[in-house]
């Protein structure tokens, strides 16, 4: 990958496509300009990352636009669009990539995307188990490798932690795949160390504080153009880290829609390899570094939670290092599960790149986008296809989520709390703990055994993946592993064992980790929040 050679081509294409869509009439041009000015000024009033230069730019645009002719306003709109495109644009430095991948010790392999912090971690871990053994790659890895040579891959992982991009990057490198283009929140670039590597290893900037529709369209168009040029893409369709701990069910579909647009453009242009394949991926931890902050934010009054959290655990480097060190000492595995690749219509794809119907028969996927026998765009049709694709991605998330001891134990204890306090609202229960500060371990073991048996049945049907500790069907060992993790990192352990009693101390964390089971039939009807 060397996106630099296509940098100007991408900018030119993005600007032209946006002008074609937004500059249809003089009225549309003027409306677009003043909407951007309004939205950007609102952002700059409260945005700590805003600059005087940005404010001056929009002051200049407004001053000129008020007295400009229609043609001059078109040029001002073009100026805004080009500014957005250059703000977004990613950069790839092959020298930095070569240095990064060659200097990382063999035991840790290497990471593209946000690589260097792992090198720092390794230096502090001594004889701890290497990342290569900590992260387990599962699922359709061989098929992914084959399809990456036949078309463009769009990888869509679940999102729990800012460590996700590190682990996905490691996984792709380990599979021998080239670097992927990916969007990263602008706030992450503020960290000089992370920012340097993200800027040089293919990340393009996503400023979630920008609310103008033109900016959002610029992001989508930028990603789509890179796909057309054959650059593999990675994005988190949940949009941000899961606050509740549950696997994402509602996806942001803009970039999935960009993939559809790119595919039709490829067919129209007669590209040799026009195909775009979507690969769902789940990232499964025992513990999540930012869990306490994320669930607290989730439990705030609706509409008041922060879309961008800048002061969570990930913002403190020493805490990150401490977290990773402790997980390594526990030999805590992180499972990265690659789902079955699909075409843009949700059909599975085989190793020859052929789409298959539900009976396993080959189908011609190009027929989905034909208009009068030729590839063409149909907004309503394509939107429906994208909705169906999003549903197929979510189904694979459900099937490929790895349930771990911490998730299982948290779920069981949280359900016991709810049943013991049927008249108590959830928020009061989380705050007070209800009528019992502890439960009999024997009773918890019995319930744990029952839930494990139900999960084993679901696993046999391919509805869920179980961690090896749960597959062993020993509730005592499952509880032991869960408690070992809960007591090792979070400031306030969610659970503690004293004699033959199990005490619940941080019920917010129990809710967070237990919500990972929220999509399975073992839930007793109360589900997650």
- Topology, number of strands: 16
CATH class of the domain at 402-517: Mainly Alpha
Based on CA atoms alone, the radius of gyration comes out at 25 Å
- State the low-pLDDT regions, or none: 103-129, 520-529
Spatial sequence of strands, sheet with the most strands: 1-7-6-2-5-3-4
Query: What's the number of helices?
Result: 21
State the helicity in percent bands: 40-55%
Provide the residue-averaged pLDDT: 85
- In CATH, the topology of the domain at 402-517 is named Arc Repressor Mutant, subunit A
- How far do the termini sit from each other? 43 Å
The CATH architecture of the domain at 402-517 is Orthogonal Bundle
The largest sheet is:
7 strands, mixed
Percentage of β-strand residues: 5-15%
Structural class: alpha/beta
Question: Can you describe this structure?
Answer:
With 529 residues, the chain is an alpha/beta fold. The protein is built from 21 helices and 16 strands. It has a domain at 402-517: Orthogonal Bundle (Arc Repressor Mutant, subunit A), CATH 1.10.10. It has a 7-stranded mixed beta sheet with strand order 1-7-6-2-5-3-4, with helices on both faces. A 3-stranded antiparallel beta sheet has the order 13-16-15. A hairpin with a 2-residue loop joins strand 15 (495-498) and strand 16 (501-504). Helix 4 (70-88) packs across helix 11 (213-228), helix 6 crosses helix 14 (317-329) and helix 12 packs across helix 15 (379-399). The two termini are 43 Å apart.
